[in-house]
Specification:
Strand content: 5-15%
Shape: elongated
Helix content: 40-55%
Strand order of the largest sheet: 1-2-6-5-4-3-7-8-9
Distance between the termini: 64 Å
Number of strands: 12
């Protein structure tokens, strides 16, 4: 007896069916089981020859056919993994927001806690090669949002994705990693420990791809629609104009979800994707509280609960109040700090702007750096 789960796994293992083909078949049949019970001749017009032949061999000898053996391996693996769940579309644990997107995944492989997929989520995405400031922004925004009860969803990739996952973990929150490989293959391999930390801390790894699926480039745009589909909003931290992050943002707009973008320097090529999104109507955000305010209503959050959480947590992104602990600045330091922007500037340009001689300027730069107000970037300096 083929179960609904086995039937779904089997249909998705047929050559060239995929998610789009699966839903086209479900427009004609009530379930994968009903499809599989049809006479093979009536199905040949719906399947390509390779898929029809594979299904014919399965019916003739399920245990010896290629797809039958693979199905047995899939089911045995699922049964052997206590923390691995397989959610077909009509499973009560299948996340509601993901159901709403066009052609959602027919099934989800979930390692970890499947209930966290129904938490209010913010997707945080961006470059695999971000600036230091970009990584810091991703981690701090994720930390702040996780403290306020949002699960942080991203793609387990290098760069911004990893920073977002770590920020949520550092806050003791839940984070969800949507993978572009089979659930049993961690990519990139250097993130195996990060993936385990996500599971150990009550989060989840998620994949729609069959077990053993390798990291093909075409998988990742498909993966991105799940990231945005699970989330009430998507935050783009740093991204080039042509990037997977903008694909995720595009999906979010198609799904009628919020899109947020952090602006950056006009000289930073990784800010151009964010600037393009802002021109197209994305919400410009300067603080994580901007996102909380907008998503609170969207996700039916009780504002009183958010205010209560804020009263017990320090604001990470609001402008700091002036206190007696603020570092005292001399006149030359004030002049220099005023001349410095948030883009790196060379010493000769700073000398021209401030009128300070190079010796005095170097001393003031060292003093401001010690006080944590500026940082050196190569041969340049920028304000923090």
């Amino acid at each position: 007896m083929v179960t609904p789960l086995a039937a779904t796994l089997l249909v998705l293992r047929l050559p060239d069916v995929g998610v789009a083909g699966y839903w086209q078949l479900l427009e004609l049949f009530d379930s994968p089981l009903q499809f599989l019970n049809q006479p093979i001749q009536s199905l040949r017009s719906l399947l390509n020859p390779a898929a029809a032949d594979m299904l014919t061999r399965f019916r003739a000898d399920p245990e010896m056919s290629d797809v039958g053996r693979q199905l047995s391996l899939d089911l045995a693996y699922l049964e052997s993994q206590s923390d691995l769940h397989c959610l077909i579309y009509d499973n009560p644990l299948y996340p509601r927001l993901l159901r709403e997107i066009p052609r959602p995944p027919p099934l989800l492989f979930v390692r970890g806690d499947p209930t966290c997929l129904s938490l209010p989520q913010l997707a945080i995405v961006g470059s695999r090669n971000p600036s230091g400031g970009g990584s810091e922004n991703a981690e701090r925004f994720a930390h702040y949002m996780a403290e306020r009860g949002f699960a942080i969803t991203s793609g387990l990739a290098l760069g911004i994705d990893a920073a977002a996952h770590r920020g949520a973990l550092r806050a003791g929150g839940k984070t969800i990693a949507v993978m572009g490989t089979g659930i049993n293959l961690i990519y990139p391999a250097r993130h195996r420990q990060l993936a385990q930390d996500i599971v150990d801390n009550g989060g989840a790894l998620v994949s729609e791809f069959p077990l053993g699926t390798a990291s093909h480039a075409c998988n990742f745009p498909q993966r991105n629609r799940i990231i945005s589909g699970l989330s009430g909003g998507t935050l783009v931290v740093e991204a080039a104009v042509k990037s997977g992050s903008l694909i995720t943002a595009s999906y979010a707009l198609q799904h009628d979800r919020e899109v947020f973008a952090i602006p950056g320097s006009i000289h930073n090529p990784l800010a151009r994707g964010c600037h393009q999104l802002i021109r197209q109507g994305a919400t410009l955000v300067e603080t994580a509280q901007d996102i909380v305010d907008q998503l609170a209503g969207l996700l039916s959050y009780k504002r009183q609960e958010i205010k209560s959480a804020k009263s017990h947590q320090p604001e990470l992104f609001d402008e700091p109040a002036v206190t007696d602990n603020e570092p005292m600045l001399g006149v030359d330091e004030q002049i220099l700090l005023q001349a410095l922007g948030y883009d790196p500037l060379p010493v000769d340009l700073l000398a021209e702007r401030t009128g300070l001689d190079v010796g005095n300027l170097s001393a003031q730069l060292i003093g401001l750096e010690i006080k944590g107000l500026i940082q050196q970037v190569g041969a340049c300096y920028q304000r923090l």
